[in-house]
Amino acid sequence: MNNRITTLFQIKYPVIQAGMVWCSGWKLASAVSNAGGLGIIGAGSMYPEVLKEHLQKCKKATDQPFAVNVPLLYPNIDAVMQIILEEGVKIVFTSAGNPATWTSFLKEKGITVVHVISNSKFALKAEACGVDAIVAEGFEAGGHNGREETTTMCLIPQITKAVKIPVIAAGGIGSGSAMLAAFALGAEAVQIGSAFAVAEESSAHPNFKHKILEAGEGDTRLSMKKVVPVRLLKNSFAEVIAQAEAEGADAEQLKQLLGRARAKLGMFEGNIEEGELEVGQVSALLQEIKPAAKILKDIWQEFLIEKDKISKLEFPA
Prior knowledge:
Blueprint: H1 4-9, E1 15-17, H2 26-34, E2 39-42, H3 48-61, E3 66-71, H4 77-86, E4 91-95, H5 103-108, E5 112-117, H6 120-129, E6 133-137, E7 143-144, H7 152-162, E8 167-170, H8 176-184, E9 189-192, H9 194-197, H10 206-214, E10 220-223, E11 230-233, H11 236-246, H12 251-258, H13 262-268, H14 292-311
Parallel strand pairs: 1-9, 2-3, 3-4, 4-5, 5-6, 6-8, 8-9
Antiparallel strand pairs: 7-11, 10-11
Helix pairs in contact: 2-3, 3-4, 8-14, 11-12
């Protein structure tokens, strides 16, 4: 398939692997890129020197394009951006912050910039800042989320009508049929997180991967809206947060409950009761751990099959 996204990134398939904290290291990113998609290293869970190591290993593991996701609210941004320049990164996805802060700087260095948004206001702002594309992420997505709670099916057509630059759909997409729906709504690619979080090459702890596979309908919840909204798998920690929110806890109290390294504890170290487990609603549909290349191939093949089925349907005039 050739469209504005595959041309922009120079990739075979319009499938982007999300830059998830504690899951998206060089092994996953290079595997997705080698399979024809766009792999992303998630810098949000990496100190600058760790990011540098992952970038160097990724460049050795693939000669295909890959990207780095940089949450702009995280510390050490200056050091992270310097490493991105030193290591010759060509594509940067920014999120969780103001795109005006770094877009011009990156663009002046010849870097393709994509920003993640959750509403039309920020989509227009990102476009005005000069980003090359945007990721429109719906309420179903795992990890940090929009406060508006707009679902992907509602968000994507709003954003594609609001902006002229290419739109990448995210949130609740883990299959070829969901990808086809996103394209029908105007997206030109999809960004997939949870389905790749359980890939063999994901750096997530096996306990976390199996917890995702065990998840059923309704087993995730959007929490921490007074701090930074985040979708979590239900566990002991999530119940503590839910109880505190029900009792009217303010942002400072929630921050104290969250503490430090809570996501690392759950997603990377495998403490599935006391850790923060970030994953999307699509986790209820995930059934097995597979290589990243197989995940991408299965999604693409289902996309083509469902597209062909729809093209053969007969409708009344």
